[in-house]
């Protein structure tokens, strides 16, 4: 398996955030049901944003992850100001990898 960290930067005061959140969560839940998400959720500090950890096949590339995450309604509706996608190599983990 390969793991990818997707870091979202968005304005927590965006008036459309609450409107688009149900579609975003449905997108995330679909990936989770396909066992492609290890975890996801918002940062709770003053900077806000979110982290999504994807667990994908060994032949997956960052470009593949970009294609997957382009389907997120937060991205489509321009809720996300900036997105960083990086391959991640867990060494120590409390979750099953």
From TrEMBL:
Top-rank taxon, per record? Bacteria
Question: Where does the record place the YCII-related domain?
Answer: 1-88
Pfam family membership, one: YCII
Family under the similarity heading: Belongs to the YciI family.
Q: What is this protein called?
A: YCII-related domain-containing protein
Origin organism is: Corynebacterium ammoniagenes DSM 20306
């Amino acid at each position: 398996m390969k793991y990818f960290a997707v870091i979202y930067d968005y304005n927590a005061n965006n008036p459309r955030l609450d409107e688009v959140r149900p579609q975003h969560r449905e997108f995330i839940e679909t990936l989770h049901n396909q066992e492609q998400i290890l975890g996801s959720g918002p940062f709770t500090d003053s900077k806000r944003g979110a982290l999504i950890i994807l667990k994908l096949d060994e032949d997956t590339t960052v470009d593949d992850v970009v294609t997957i995450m382009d389907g997120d309604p937060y991205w489509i509706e321009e809720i996300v100001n900036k997105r960083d996608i990086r391959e991640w190599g867990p060494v120590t983990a409390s979750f099953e990898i």
